[in-house]
C-alpha cells in the first residue's frame, strides 16, 4: 500500500466506489498516473488486482468553465456503442463533499501508451504503420458520427467552432497568464481574418494524438482517452492537431522533439493526410490554416499549464518547468507564424 496521492480522499472515495461498483474488493490502492497536464488521472487497484481509472480536476487555479467531469463521463458513455473505442464509464460523482471536486471512474483498458520516442522505438517495426493507420481511421470514424443520433447533439454549438476556439484560448491568456505574449495577439488577429469556412459539424476530440490513445498489442486503437476538450464543430481542427503532433516540423523543442511518430515506420504526415482524405468527405485544401491554428492553440494551452505548475495546482507533479516550457511556447508560435506566412 502506498501513501494516498494528493487529490484523493481515500476513505470517502473508497466508500463511494464500493457503493457504485459492487464487485470491488477493498482495500484500494490509488496512484497518480504521471504525464497529464490538466485533469488529474489516477489508477485504482482493488484487493483482487482489478484495476480502474479515476479522473478529477486539478487541485486549484482553474477557469470556472473548465474541467467538467460530467461532460467527459457523458461523452464516453455516448460513444460506448459506436465504432469509436472508449473506456467503459462506471460512475460519476458530482458531490464535492466526497473528494473536494466532481470525479468519475472508468474501467481500465489493457494496452500500450506510446508516449515518446523511446516508446516508439520499442514498438515492433511491423506494427508501427498499423498503429498509424488505425489512429487515422479511428479519427475518421469519430468525425463520421452523427452527434444527434448518439445523444450528443446538444454537447455544444454546431457552428463557428474555430472562431469560438480563438476567443476561448485568447481569453485564457488574457485572464490567466502573468505575462504578455505579443505573438499570441498577432497570430490570433491574422487567423481571424483568414479563417476557412466550416464544413458541416461533427464531434471534435480536441486533443487527438497517438499518446492519447490506448493501443492494443495488434496495433489497433483499444481506447481513445482524454476527452476533456471535446465539443462539436469543425472536425478538421482534429486533423490539424494530429498532423502537428506527427513531428515532421524541424527544430522542435521539449516534448515536441520527443514524439514517437518521428521513429521510422510510422509513416509521414503527408501519408496520414492522404489516408484521412480517402476516408472522409471533407475537403482538406485549407489544412495549413488548421495546422497553424493548432500550433497557436497549443501555445496558449501550454502557457496555462505553465501558470498552473507555478501555482502548484498539479498536486505532486513538478511545480515548475522554467525555460523549457517558455522555449516550447516560443517555438509553437514561431511555427504557426511560418505556416501562415507560407500558406
Quick summary of this structure?
This protein is an alpha+beta fold. Helices cover 42% and strands 11% of the residues. It has two domains: 10-107, Phosphorylase Kinase, domain 1, CATH 3.30.200; 117-342, Aminoglycoside 3'-phosphotransferase, Chain: A, domain 2 (Alpha-Beta Complex), CATH 3.90.1200.
What does this structure look like?
With about 350 residues, the protein is α+β, with helices and mostly antiparallel strands. It folds into two domains: about 10-105, Phosphorylase Kinase, domain 1 (2-Layer Sandwich), CATH 3.30.200; about 115-340, Aminoglycoside phosphotransferase (APH), C-terminal lobe (Aminoglycoside 3'-phosphotransferase, Chain: A, domain 2), CATH 3.90.1200. The chain has eleven helices and nine strands. A five-stranded antiparallel β-sheet has the order 1-2-3-5-4, with helices on both faces. Strands 6-9 form a two-stranded antiparallel sheet. The chain has a two-stranded antiparallel ribbon with strand order 7-8. α6 (about 160-175) packs antiparallel against α7 (about 180-195). The chain starts with 9 loop residues before the first helix and ends with a helix. The model has no long low-confidence stretch (mean pLDDT about 90).
Amino acid at each position: 500500500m502506498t501513501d494516498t496521492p494528493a487529490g484523493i480522499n481515500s476513505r470517502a472515495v473508497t466508500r463511494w466506489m464500493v457503493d457504485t461498483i459492487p464487485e470491488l474488493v477493498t482495500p484500494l490502492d490509488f496512484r497518480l498516473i504521471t504525464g497529464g497536464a490538466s485533469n488529474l488521472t489516477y489508477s485504482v487497484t482493488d484487493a483482487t488486482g482489478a484495476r480502474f481509472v479515476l479522473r478529477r480536476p486539478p487541485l486549484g487555479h482553474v477557469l470556472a468553465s473548465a474541467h467538467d467531469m460530467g461532460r467527459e463521463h457523458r461523452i464516453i458513455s455516448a460513444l460506448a456503442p459506436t465504432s469509436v473505442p472508449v473506456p467503459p464509464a462506471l460512475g460519476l460523482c458530482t458531490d464535492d463533499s466526497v473528494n473536494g471536486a466532481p470525479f468519475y471512474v472508468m474501467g481500465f483498458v489493457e494496452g500500450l501508451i506510446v508516449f515518446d520516442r523511446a516508446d516508439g522505438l520499442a514498438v515492433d517495426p511491423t506494427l508501427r504503420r498499423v498503429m498509424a493507420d488505425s489512429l487515422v481511421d479511428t479519427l475518421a470514424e469519430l468525425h463520421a458520427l452523427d452527434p444527434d443520433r448518439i445523444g450528443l447533439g446538444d454537447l455544444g454549438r454546431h457552428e463557428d467552432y474555430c472562431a469560438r476556439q480563438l476567443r476561448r484560448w485568447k481569453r485564457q491568456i488574457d485572464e490567466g497568464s502573468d505575462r504578455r505574449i505579443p505573438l499570441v495577439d498577432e497570430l490570433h488577429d491574422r487567423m481571424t481574418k483568414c479563417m476557412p469556412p466550416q464544413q458541416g459539424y461533427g464531434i471534435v476530440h480536441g486533443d487527438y494524438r497517438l499518446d492519447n490513445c490506448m493501443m492494443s498489442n495488434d496495433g489497433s486503437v483499444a481506447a481513445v482517452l482524454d476527452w476533456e476538450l471535446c465539443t462539436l464543430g469543425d472536425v478538421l481542427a482534429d486533423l490539424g492537431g494530429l498532423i502537428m503532433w506527427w513531428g515532421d516540423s524541424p527544430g522542435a523543442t521539449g516534448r515536441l522533439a520527443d514524439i514517437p511518430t518521428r521513429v521510422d515506420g510510422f509513416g509521414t504526415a503527408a501519408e496520414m493526410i492522404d489516408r484521412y482524405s480517402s476516408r472522409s468527405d471533407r475537403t482538406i485544401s485549407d489544412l495549413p490554416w488548421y495546422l497553424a491554428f493548432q500550433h497557436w492553440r497549443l501555445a496558449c494551452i501550454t502557457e496555462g499549464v505553465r501558470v498552473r505548475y507555478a501555482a502548484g495546482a498539479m498536486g505532486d507533479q513538478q511545480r515548475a518547468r522554467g525555460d523549457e516550457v517558455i522555449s516550447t511556447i516560443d517555438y509553437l508560435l514561431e511555427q504557426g507564424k511560418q505556416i501562415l506566412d507560407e500558406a
